[in-house]
Fold these 2 entries.
Entry 1:
Amino acid sequence: MKEFKHVIADPMGLHARPAGMLVKAVAPYASKVTVIAPTGKADARRLMGIMRLAAKAGMELTIQVEGADEETAAAELQAFMAANL
Amino acid sequence: MGFLDKLFSRPVYSLYAPMAGRAVSVADVPDSAFSGGLLGKGIAVIPTDGRVLAPCDATVDVVFTTGHAVSLIADFGAEILIHVGLSVTARDSRFFTACVQSGQKVRRGDLLIEVDLPAATGAGLDLTTPMLVTNASEYAQIQINTGADVTNSDVAVQLAK
């Protein structure tokens, strides 16, 4: 399993649009991707689950990536989140 | 009901328009997060009234802290996102009053959010309001009714498994 951390930079937090972008970004990978926030944890493929975290700006997320393509997926998702969330 | 229940013997579920106004295809919304289908399938309403009403009997799932969006779990299982306005930012939250809390049971027509429509429009916000089924992939058929003036008495989306 690969794991990385990300602090939410978007002033509105992980609201609908970024949550949707994250779900889309995760879709191509085979690995299971779990987002862990202080408010709970969610499967990154489930839009409602991500929104339910109600993750706010400045909150630190831990992202766990587990599966056949975890190396690539973790690296690319980390770059995606740094650029977009 | 529509053509769907003639076509299938399986149940057809209805979502009523969440706001009064003009119903348009979400594909025509000038925001790729919605029009691209990223968040789900559904309609958008260009509102003429600031009250956001429950589209079906449901349980409130998430109320966004800014008050401009709410997600619901329909009693029949659909996951629904109602997102008032397109490029709403944190400082626009003064225009929105959430009237429900997470976990609350609502009936169709119950008030979810109140929007100060004149003030928000005056501040330049586009209040086009997408209503999306975020677990659309669980439904074999989704029929959307657009192009008309609607109220909460009009069916906007029909779903069949």
Entry 2:
Amino acid sequence: MQDKILDKSEVDALLERLGSEYDVYAPLRDQQGSVEWAALDSSSDLVWDFSNTGVSPKRFVFPQTECMMRFNNRSDDPEGMIMKQEQGLQRQQALLNIRPCDAKALKALDSIYCRDQTSNDVYWRDKREKTLYVGLACKSPCPTCFCTSVRCGPHYEEGLDILLVDLGERLLVRTLSEKGAELASNLSDAPDEAKQQAAQQKEEAEAAVRSQVGLENIQSRGIMELYEAPMWDREHESCLNCGVCTYVCPTCHCFDIQDETQGEHGRRVRNWDTCMSWLFTYHTSGHNPRGTKKDRFRQRFMHKFKYMPYKFDVIGCVGCGRCTQSCPVNIDVTEVVGEMNEPDLN
Amino acid sequence: MRNNNPYLPYPVRIKRVEIATEDRSLRTFELEFLHQEDADAFRYLPGQFAELSVPGYGEAPIGIASSPTEGDTLLFTVSKAGLLTSHLHSMSEGDVMGVRGPLGKSYPLQEMEGKNVLILAGGYAVTTLRSTMVWLLHPDNRPKYGDITFVYGARTPGMILYKELLEEWETNSDANIHLTIDNEAPGWDKHVGFVPQIAEKIEPSPQNAMALVCGPPVMIKFTQPVLDKQGWQSDQIIMSLENRMKCGIGICGRCNVGPHYVCKDGPVFSKAELDELPKEY
Amino acid sequence: MQELTQQIRSAAKRLLQEERVDCVLGYREGTVPMRERPFFAYTPEEADQLVWTRFCVNNLANFLIGRQDRVAVVAQGCVSRNIVGLIQEKQLSREQVYVLGLHSPGMVDSAKVQAQFPNRVIHSVEEDGEELLVNGADFQERVKVRDVKRDNCYTCTHRNAVIYDEFLGEQGEETGGGNIDNVAAPWENLSLEERWQRFEETFKDCIRCYACRDVCPLCYCNQCFVDENQPQWCGKTVEETDVHTFHILRAFHCAGRCTDCGACESACPVGIKMRRLTSKLEKDIRELYGYSPGLDLESTPPLSVYSPEDPEPFSTG
């Protein structure tokens, strides 16, 4: 790890260097005035003051719709029924100003997508390896942020190649990987006062994360104790079972695989899917293992806060608060988790 | 992109199709790999499954009915139910399709060594138990196991799968074979009644034994109390779950039961394991 | 608004105490600014959580579908119209539901408020008469409610509940002052190519989370056409064809039934303006059939029945 310094007026030079090797994406202000991920054309478009994007950047590694393989849809062509693998990412990509929570989310998902030799999602891995993560430390967390409660934080470094800290006219550039170090190699070392300023900012940002959840009781409780807790009866009541929470979430990662044909062209695609949908688990026989709204509602929280920690030792949440913000009926993740962690579940 | 893409099916050819039951709802497919290296790579054990893949129709997870001791071809008995399986039923010998696998965990064949084995099968859930029986009865494996009792129930004589093989086991193996149908039928001289009733009648001893139980939910429901009464402990009872699946490799999240992925951590679970999990299967 | 909150609470308590209903469906305070949430109060104590503000953007009629118990429901104009629609379509019986009618003040579009404060995080918003008090970590500002209402509230035609068992507060101004045809009409002035372009632009950000569908009291099908796979009417991707198919078919399924409650736009996480489509359908139904949805328990939505007198202006014969 090294701390370098970069004057904001010199960001162009850095971008030029990035652009020569990578397709660069960043959170940019769109026509409606909200900040969302888009391809970066000019450094003047960069936004330095924003909380976070409405939709997470997971799509750069896990596109909502992704062609996995193709086939020739002709029954008279014996080779047609043999799948041809789709090519990987053609050019490397850089996610500039990604929030530390979003980078950590991708890192956390590696434990599922690249679990072992047989569970080795080549599509995920291909993009993970070809992506550079240049983080921007969070200055003003939202009221819905609770990253510090879930092993994350406004300056969290895991999953990043570089962490930028916005010091006003300058950026502190903290290199966190070889790729990152290489990119910042021609920058000068950060002076001590800049490092101090960044450290102070970190402290302030962490203190500004006002929502907190406890997880200790969730961790110590058995799966069935949590599963059968009476809280679910009321908590799910207003849930619509739409997929907003899962689609804006940086760690929700379930998908569907489908074949599509058009004339002679055939492809196997995967699309984001959501455990909120009744169809997700519906058997052809008509049986549905998660047949009620309550079952589906419970699954999402159990998956993130009990099952994933139990199985992979990662929390399936980075505390970005997007689900709470986007939920049409304002189901608040911190409230639900708070209930799961209550000393007395009854 | 890397070559070891777990989503990419091996190309196979349908070598043989057989209408497996009198109601024509089940067909058995024998598949041969187009490339020998794929056959070599496809190393499986009884209890595992594969995704059958037909371009344009998708994939369906189906238990492997053949045993690796039978050679390089694979056997699948498929019920006509959804989009893919309906289309599969219209396919013929010589057609090319795909197979992805082997997937999931096998039955605990090692743990079963030195023990008596009870197999309770109902309906077409018998498929992976066929695989298991063939494997257990193979001369290389048979000495490692104690008594083998195989109970298999179907609605009618015409719904019994793998008839020739069953006859072969009845006459030429040392396994105790109990076949049963739901109601009396002309010419039927074997058991009549549901699998749990037969299990009650033959009183298999739980002493140094393990039971593999596979069948429709109603069979499982009524078998359990019988085994409980006979003193079987939940860690002696092995079951196989079926949940909706897509990726088959423990990623897409569809088949989750509690923290486990049925496709990767299962489909084989002990009853003791399942007792600790939500009944989301 | 404070006063109406009190009236809702006391009505709810009374109904629960007298066991006239099993629960009261209303709104309670949300945890994020400008979003109250649907809430079922089962006891008089729980009724104390009910609120009535300009941030009540969910259509509560949606939450009545499939319920077997007797429910009292807080209903402004559009919600009451959807209750009428559900009764017409036999999804609900009139006896089962006790309508606490209200006059809608016009609800706030949180995105419009946020747009006035780019780069700033809003921590809370309070109502203060015809203004909103917007608070952030280091600022407090006022905005006028009339500038930040939801689009559909400007063009509302029935702000008072159209059916009710009791009306809380005073009946008020019936319309929002705007003309819905101004939303619908622009389409009519566009060339075919421009229409298509506008249409594509409208739906380009859709992530197919189906919040618009799931928040809508018209979308109660057991199995939505997008979820069917034999045959599969609509692909699952976020590519244009599939996204367009979903939105076009959904809009047509809702034609002649949509009350322009705006719940879909309020629910959309990416700010899609579905009303650009539905307002045109609303206008067509009104002009072709002389029908406005959800006003009359005895009538039937025009696209649900055949009449020899049905107009056929689209007929090429």
